[in-house]
């Protein structure tokens, strides 16, 4: 059998996906493994056990990123793959997990075929990719590439008040490796699309060439609590109404700007949050994304103008705080072309595309040639227990990953 | 000294108000004694101790309403006063408490002057007037007047999931008296206005002739959770956006209808409530009030039309549940006139007015001649730790209550 005929074992991949999905399982088939919770620890323990069973050299860095290294014929910089295994509160079973477990499956496939690559191969999972408990998202890979100081990351507070460094130590994943260990020669991340494009078009493989810019803000509105029955409408300073007006405007803004602009208010908390009391305070988040940095900046500026007018009209104060801000990312053209070539050679339909979501790959792109492989999400559903990707597509994505990594790890120099 | 010259002791009243305000005290001088919590129990224990110190015959009914009876010369139906001592989460120190503690002060003033009235006098405090923990508001007085079955009330679930009957037993206030005990000859409730009218006009006493109708609804919006970055705006079924749109419409509705119409969305809960996930579900409340029943019904109907259109446009379902619905109330003209006459005789400025808030008196009005006495709320602020009424106004209200009760308890027949 030539290397070109090599294929991953789908059943082995599905078995690992199933086993990991049992950890923090929630109704409807999804997972809740918010970063650095006990369920995240149990998920990590399971994946680390699999890494050790594959005789990978496991290292853990000071922000809890975990790496399993398979030696190559040389000690050159490794080719890295991976993703994350933390989830949102209502996560699906493939988001992140597929990229990590397909990486393990690729290494096991190479083992079975007794293939040794020139460069070492590394499968990684990065801490707190979702940012659902500790902002910002992709925190682990951001620290890894050196663009967030470790001390600052360890001091981040969770939405439940916990300190990231304390939680990391508590679950036993404050490792000894310095962030940046195994500085990779190239990075490839396999991920579900989490959007509807591939499914709608019946295309199996997305060669992801760029990624939307992301702006996350937290708004704190301070008004005046008062009696809901006796306070005339004109005398109200209603933080709850202001929060609602922001959510309405974000929708209007995205509709008006069109193109790739999206906007979401996913989190609203009122205080005191009672039926008969005008809210004194509201905290809410605004998530804005655009593939064009200038347009994203325009969206932020238009929102700021709206907030100033709203604060004045309602007699409330509105404080804004940036929780995350990432410019759009362009992936490495050579790696994208290689993914396309592999998909073609495997007889799989493919297209170039843009990622609407943030991924660890966007951080890795700052330090090495990087691209992503997408597989379809049925109806584009993600961050939802109903998230689903067909088995044939999971296997197809893993096979594209296999041959992309194999090529990158044997070619020299990387183009 | 003739009875006409009789006055309450302001310092004694203020001391009791201060002592009760220490129970469940919160920052800013307010109170949090949500119904049937441990803090509510401590507040009840304190007021019951004061009742016993005044040698009142204390009885507790099966829904936890508490009555302190001072015997009259006859065993005729008593004249009752009182209010509530539960609070909202960010309650002030006078809302409810003033009516109960002024009632005790009136009885102590009669004791000091060795006055025995013809009819007995009763000071009552009713369970769960605020409805902030257990809907509907005024639940205790509603059961008292026989318009909510006891069994149904005991089965009400709190916003924290607890069963009312269990919590009542837990804090030791599941009494043995049947609801309706001491069926009163008349009822008078002293309360802070909780609105801006008296303060703005510099008037000391409000003779409350009627009370706004209240409509409380809980809305549950079910959409589809999905990724905030990858889901095109046109494909969203965003429960969070729908909740915000409702809050925006309620404001618009109140503005458009004008007059006495007010509308408030004070409570919004999103699920999963995360920055990068389109909300799958939202629960929110709508509080609508109007002095005119037909206009209130119109507001409800217009909201229903809006909800149907919104559900269709956004591709979500919206379930509505009525948490409370009370028609506007007209108080007893005789009792109102008596309050005005007493205020005049005491040299106090007064005006007839409408209550924008719900009160236990509106329930008592169903079974006996009833009216209310209002004193000013500085800047109309209420349901807020900054709620304040000037000492001179607290005393004035208690003196109007004293002479109104004295008149009602000695006159026969009541007009």
What do these coordinates show?
Two copies of one chain form a homodimer. In chain A, helix 3 crosses helix 12 and helix 10 (333-345) packs across helix 12. In chain A, strands 3, 4, 5, 6, 7, 8, 16, 17 and 18 form a nine-stranded mixed beta sheet that branches. In chain A, strands 9, 11, 12, 14 and 15 form a five-stranded antiparallel beta sheet that branches. Chain A has a two-stranded antiparallel ribbon with strand order 1-2. Chain A has helices at residues 10-21, 38-53, 97-112, 139-144, 150-154, 164-170, 197-201, 239-257, 293-314, 333-345, 360-364, 391-410, and strands at residues 25-26, 30-31, 57-60, 66-70, 79-83, 121-125, 186-192, 205-211, 213-222, 226-227, 262-264, 268-271, 277-278, 281-290, 317-326, 329-330, 350-355, 370-375. Chain A folds into two domains: 3-212 and 330-410, Zn peptidases (Aminopeptidase, 3-Layer(aba) Sandwich); 213-326, Alpha-Beta Plaits (2-Layer Sandwich). The first copy, chain A, has 415 residues and is of the alpha+beta class. The model of chain A has no long low-confidence stretch (mean pLDDT 95). Chain A contains twelve helices and 18 strands. At the A-B interface, strand 10, helix 8, strand 11, strand 12 and strand 13 of A face strand 10, helix 8, strand 11, strand 12 and strand 13 of B.
């Amino acid at each position: 059998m030539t290397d070109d005929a090599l294929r991953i074992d789908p059943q082995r991949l599905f078995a690992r996906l199933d086993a990991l999905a049992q950890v923090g399982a929630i109704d409807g088939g999804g997972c809740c493994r918010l970063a650095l919770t006990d369920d995240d620890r149990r998920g990590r323990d399971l994946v680390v056990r699999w890494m050790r069973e594959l005789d990978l050299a496991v290292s853990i860095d000071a922000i809890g990123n975990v790496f399993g290294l398979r030696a190559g014929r040389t000690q050159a910089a490794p080719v890295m793959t991976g993703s994350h295994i933390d989830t949102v509160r209502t996560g699906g079973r493939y988001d992140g997990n597929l990229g990590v477990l397909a990486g393990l499956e690729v290494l096991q496939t190479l083992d079975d075929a007794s293939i040794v690559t020139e460069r070492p191969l590394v499968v990684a999972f990065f801490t707190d990719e979702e940012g659902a408990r500790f902002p910002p998202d992709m925190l682990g890979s951001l620290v890894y590439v050196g663009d967030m100081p470790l001390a600052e990351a360890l001091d981040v507070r969770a939405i439940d008040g916990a300190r990231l460094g304390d939680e990391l130590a508590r679950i036993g994943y404050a490792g000894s490796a310095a962030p940046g260990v195994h500085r990779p020669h190239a990075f490839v991340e396999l991920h579900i699309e989490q959007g509807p494009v591939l499914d709608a078009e019946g295309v199996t493989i997305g060669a992801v060439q760029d990624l939307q810019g992301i702006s996350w803000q937290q708004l704190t509105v301070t008004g005046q609590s008062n009696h809901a029955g006796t306070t005339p409408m004109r005398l109200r300073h209603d933080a709850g109404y202001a929060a609602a007006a922001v959510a309405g405007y974000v929708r209007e803004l995205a509709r008006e700007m069109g193109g790739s602009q999206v906007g979401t208010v996913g989190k609203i908390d009122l205080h005191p949050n009672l039926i008969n009391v005008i809210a004194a305070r509201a905290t809410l988040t605004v998530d804005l994304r655009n593939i064009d940095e200038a347009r994203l900046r325009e969206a932020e500026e238009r929102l700021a103008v709206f907030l100033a007018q709203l604060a004045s009209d309602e007699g409330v104060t509105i404080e804004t705080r940036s929780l995350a801000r990432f410019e759009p990312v362009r992936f490495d053209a050579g790696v994208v072309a290689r993914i396309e070539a592999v998909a073609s050679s495997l007889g799989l339909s493919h297209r170039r595309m843009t990622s609407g979501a943030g991924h660890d790959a966007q951080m890795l792109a700052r330090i090495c040639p990087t691209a992503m492989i997408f597989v379809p999400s049925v109806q584009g559903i993600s961050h939802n227990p109903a998230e689903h990707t067909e088995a044939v597509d999971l296997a197809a994505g893993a096979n594209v990953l296999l041959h992309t990594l194999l090529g990158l790890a044997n070619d020299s120099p990387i183009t």
